[in-house]
Specification:
The complex is a heterodimer of chains A (about 700) and B (about 325). Chain A contains 17 helices and 23 strands. Chain A is α+β, with helices and mostly antiparallel strands and about 700 residues long. In chain A, helix 9 runs antiparallel to helix 10 and helix 12 crosses helix 14. The longest helix of chain A has about 35 residues. By secondary structure, chain B is mainly α. Chain B has two domains: about 80 residues; about 230 residues, MetI-like fold (Orthogonal Bundle). In chain B, strands 1-2 form a two-stranded antiparallel sheet. Classes of the chains: A alpha+beta (about 700), B mainly alpha (about 325).
Chain lengths: ~700, ~325
């Protein structure tokens, strides 16, 4: 210390003298004398150290690497066009099943108003009813089910209405099966039912012959009988006979009615009007059942046609749909919500127009939907697909191609991409229509997708490619370097502060202070730091700390775990310095304790501190990157070199993306090597005795 | 000497007590994810006699987690003194069983690396010192520095990439090959040995640099000593100077440090074992720490703390034993 000051004074004096001399020399035209003081140069200790340092080639190399690394990490991002959290995207085409077209064979029912409920059994049967009507070429069909009469009427091709009326069974006409009696197998006795005429001697016949099996037929006295096991008792058989004529369910309606019914059945009519009441005749093979019916009301309209709106956004209510379908067979006009519409049949299509005569929608026999079943295809595309399919069918070919604009899709959100003005961006895309054996037309195309550019290999735009989040690896390396270097510096600074204070106290005061502090040092020396850091990492994972806060906590912990070495070194140095004369002199001059420590002792420990710090930064960087590599250090989205390697540390990723982790790993290595070289060089420069 | 040893041992016990206390407080503050999961698991068992809350209470009481860190720590200590180290939560086995399963793998790995480290680093260090500022010295120093600066995880990944992925000489990780069960016992041993090659190489490279530099520095110091100059002046052949006079004196610090690192052979290599899935104590403890397995983690940390203290003690005692100039007090 004292020597240094002396040197400084000497240097100042020399400088002054040299300046004076220079002035003189300028006057006397550059004459240099042997006793010229400017020829003698006294180097300050710092310059000496610097000179010695510069002689060490490895150290100089390390210093250059460090300068380059700092420029790279701290200044580099200023000149690099990409940020650390900038996500890169790319356009890619993907062959997708865009749409599917098929002619619907099934009919879907839409309720007309909500007055009449149609039971689900009838709904479920509608498809087969309509099918049978089409096969038989019938215009109407009457059905009785669940105590009600239904009438199905064809309105138009593919459009059928279902009307319902309350009904009551009146009678059965024609051949009907009636119960003749019950035969007990055990006693072989026959018990005739009441009110049935049976041939004489039937009981005797049955008692003699019996009846075999679960069911069967026999003939006696010119009358045919059949029997089957009674539902209630296993040993008994129900015996049925047949009766031709009218059997009433309720009370008789008289001969006139019966006659009318039989004539109607003979004619094959299914409806009958008698005495001001409507009757419905349901033919059931040999017999017909006659129902009285109330008023028929249209309950539902069934259609196999598919509604295609011209404008996807427009509102086409179910009410309008029903109105249009019902009107299709008639005058072709309907009104919903006070507005008039018209329906017109063109080829197989039903075109719906509004009151201005503008086409607003159409019912098409061809269902064209997205593969998911959603109706999001615009009308134009539907039309061109439909006409392409028509053409295909005409020519009898199985494939066709059309060209149409397809919106650009963002594969992350599934939304259509909009340009700056909010219009959908479209690409003219060739679409392939293929007819499958099942009569379904598949529409496939190469849709352009907008997606995150993940794991792009190195290229001109991304020097080291992109990572799994679509971030530019090179930019991340720069920003990662910032944090890694910063962590190193902050942690070492903390370690030095704690170490110097505690080590200084221990060394200066000795005795019990020394004793306590040194035991503390022993404890911290003994604590296994890597496991502790891992445990802390897990702890912070549980707490879900914010990444920035987490970074600070991690630095604090690293500093707390690392100060013991510094303290031990400082204490040792101070113990030996304390005994030197200059300290005795300082004490004798009455300088206060704090000044003695911080002005006289600590500066003398500075060289060792600088060396320890330089070498220590490398160690801290390794520890930090190891922790981050394990996923327990700095967290995404903050980048450090360790996290970057961690993001590609799975076995698959290690194989696939060496261009991410190898440069990062090398960078860590080079930085740490450089710190160590510089530290080594500094130590040798400060203490030349160690390097003779 | 005996007095010194006893004093040091007592200090060590004191230090260990505080170290374990700090670690216990840390573990105590783990948000007990594991106890809760365990209680849930036990409560959901079909023949469970207690509800979740009761199980939680029971488990907390069993591990002394319900009385605050101080009493909890003493509960743990009491259990340890009674030889009851508890059951590992992660491995669902007594801690000592897990330890017995794992420790020999770690020891084998440590021993192999230790032997190779000595074989490679010491001659290299001596050679570098002999040719100070020569090509060998510079390249050896640079190599040593790179070894020191290499993060273990990067080196391990690099070795895996080169030798397992690209050259396909070894499996990427694990201790046994696919057909381990069909091999004869001797071939099984060879199979496991083969799987130990990459982890050993990793450990050797990582540790070689430090020892090499240490050897070099000490050798240089010795070579500059007066008695070496005297020996040379007397005309002793250079070979004899190095092997007889210089190397023997270099051995003093070397034996001290190497002796001190002997207990460390048992401590396991946390990162290397984890990355290569070697089921040694390091890998086991990593898995335990990550899930907050208090019994095993406490045991492992106590174990390596003891090893560290033991290492320091051995180093100090050896120092006195090897060098008669040193007197311990």
């Amino acid at each position: 210390m004292s020597e240094m000051k002396k040197n400084n004074y000497l240097n100042d004096a020399l400088k002054k003298r040299a300046e004076e001399k220079e002035n003189e020399a300028a006057e006397s035209a550059g004459e240099v004398k042997l006793d010229d003081l400017s020829r003698v140069k006294v180097l300050s200790p710092a310059r000496k150290v610097f000179k010695r340092f510069m002689r060490n080639r490895l150290a100089v190399f390390g210093a250059y690497v460090l300068i380059a690394m700092f420029l790279f990490a701290f200044a580099g991002p200023l000149f690099y066009p990409y940020g650390q959290k900038q996500v890169f995207n790319k356009y890619d085409t993907q062959n997708i099943n865009y749409a599917q077209a098929k002619k619907l064979a099934s009919y879907t029912g839409y309720p007309v108003g909500d007055e009449v409920d149609v039971p689900s059994s009838v709904n479920n049967m509608m498809n087969s009813y309509i099918k049978s009507m089409i096969e038989a070429g019938e215009e109407t069909k009457d059905v009785v089910a669940e105590g009600a009469a239904y009438s199905i009427k064809r309105i138009e091709d593919g459009v059928y209405s279902l009307s319902a009326a309350e009904s009551e069974e009146i009678c059965t006409a024609g051949v009907s099966e009636i119960k003749a009696g019950v035969f007990s197998r055990g006693s072989k006795s026959f018990e005739a039912a009441e009110g049935v005429e049976l041939p004489e001697g039937l009981d005797a016949y049955l008692a003699e012959n019996g009846l075999s099996g679960q069911s069967g037929e026999f003939e006696f006295g010119g009358v045919k009988f059949n029997y089957s096991r009674s539902a209630n008792e296993k040993t008994k058989l129900d015996v049925f006979t047949h009766y031709e004529g009218v059997v009433y369910a309720g009370s008789s309606l008289g001969e006139e009615f019966e006659k009318a019914v039989l004539t109607a059945i003979e004619k094959g009519e299914s409806a009958l009007s008698f005495d001001g009441t409507d009757y419905l005749i349901a033919n059931d093979g040999d017999s017909s059942r006659v129902f009285s019916t109330g008023e028929f009301k249209t309950a539902k309209v069934f259609t196999s046609l598919v509604l295609d709106k011209h404008d996807q956004e427009s509102d086409f209510t179910d009410e309008m749909r029903v109105g249009a379908l019902l009107a299709a067979g008639g005058e072709g006009v309907f009104s919903v919500g006070g507005k008039d519409y018209s329906v017109e049949k063109v080829d197989e299509y039903l075109i719906v127009k509004d009151s201005d005569g503008k086409e607003i929608a159409e019912f098409s026999p061809l269902s064209i939907r997205r593969q998911s079943g959603q109706d999001t295809i615009e009308y134009d595309l539907k039309r061109s697909i439909a006409s392409a399919i028509e053409e295909m069918d005409e020519k009898g070919v199985k494939t066709a191609t059309i060209v149409h604009d397809i919106p650009l899709q963002d594969s992350e959100t599934g939304q259509q991409m909009l340009d700056e003005e909010g219009n959908v961006i479209v690409n003219s895309t060739e679409m392939l229509i293929t007819r499958t054996d099942t009569g379904v037309y598949n529409v496939t195309c190469d849709q352009v997708l907008y997606l995150i550019d993940r794991y792009a290999p190195p290229s001109a735009t991304h020097i080291l490619g992109t990572d799994g989040d679509g971030f530019d690896v090179f930019a991340r390396i720069m920003y990662g370097g910032r944090i890694s270097l910063l962590v190193g510096f902050v942690v070492i600074f903390l370690e030095i502060i704690i170490g110097v204070i505690l080590g200084g106290l221990a060394g200066f005061y000795g005795k019990w202070v020394d004793m306590i502090i040194m035991r503390l040092v022993d404890i911290f020396y003994c604590i296994p730091s890597m496991p502790i850091l891992i445990i802390f990492g897990v702890l912070m994972d549980y707490q879900r700390l914010n990444p920035y806060l987490r970074l600070f906590v991690m630095m604090a912990i690293l500093g707390l775990l690392g100060w013991a070495g510094v303290a031990r070194m400082v204490r040792g140095q101070i113990l030996s310095l304390r005994e030197q004369e200059f300290m005795t002199a300082a004490e004798a001059t009455g300088i206060k304790t704090s000044t003695r420590i911080f002005k006289h002792l600590i500066p003398n420990v500075m060289p060792q501190l600088i060396v320890i710090a330089t070498m220590g930064i490398g160690g801290v960087i390794i520890t930090e990157s190891t922790l981050s590599f394990l996923g327990l250090g700095v967290k995404h989205p903050l980048a450090t070199w360790g996290t970057m390697i961690n993001s590609v540390s799975s076995q698959q990723a290690v194989k696939m993306y060496p261009y991410i982790w190898i440069p990062v790993g090398l960078l860590i290595c080079i930085t740490v090597v450089a710190f160590n070289f510089v530290g080594d060089g500094l130590r040798d420069a400060y203490d030349p005795r160690s390097k003779k | 000497m005996l007095k010194y040893t006893i004093k040091r041992l007592l200090y060590s016990v004191l230090i260990l007590f505080f170290v374990m206390f700090i670690i216990y407080v840390l573990m105590y503050n783990m948000p007990a994810g594991y106890i809760e999961t365990k209680a849930m698991e036990l409560a959901n068992k079909q023949n469970s006699t207690r509800s979740f809350d009761e199980w939680l209470k029971f488990l907390n009481a069993q591990y002394g987690m319900d009385k605050g860190p101080f009493i909890g720590y003493f509960t743990w200590l009491g259990n340890v003194f009674r030889g009851n180290l508890g059951d590992s939560w992660k491995w669902t086995q007594p801690v000592t069983e897990v330890f017995k399963d794992a420790i020999w793998y770690s020891f084998a790995l440590g021993l192999v690396s230790f032997i190779f480290e000595i074989i490679i680093a010491i001659p290299l260090g001596i050679k570098a010192a002999k040719n100070q500022y020569g090509v060998v010295d510079y390249s050896a120093s640079a190599f040593a520095m790179i070894c020191i600066s290499m993060p273990t995880f990067f080196l391990a990944t690099l070795l895996k990439y080169i030798f397992a992925v690209k050259l396909k000489w070894f499996d990427i990780s694990g201790m046994q090959g696919k057909f381990y069960d069909q091999l004869s016992p001797f071939m099984q041993f060879l199979d496991v040995a083969k799987h130990f090659i990459l982890p050993s190489v990793t450990l050797i490279i990582i540790s070689i640099g430090g020892l090499m530099r240490y050897t070099r520095t000490n050798m240089l110091e010795v070579l500059n000593a007066d008695y070496i100059r005297t020996a040379r002046a007397k005309g002793v052949p250079e070979k004899k100077v190095i092997s007889h006079h210089a190397f023997r004196n270099t051995l003093i610090p070397l034996i001290t440090t190497l002796g001190g690192s002997l207990p460390g052979l048992f401590s396991g290599a946390l990162i290397t074992e984890t990355l290569f899935a070697i089921r040694g104590i390091g890998f086991r403890s990593y898995e335990s720490m990550v899930v907050g397995d208090i019994p095993f983690t406490m045991f492992y940390l106590a174990f390596i703390s003891i090893l560290t203290l033991l290492g320091n003690l051995i180093a100090d005692l050896l120092y006195a034993a090897v060098d008669p100039r040193v007197r311990l007090s």
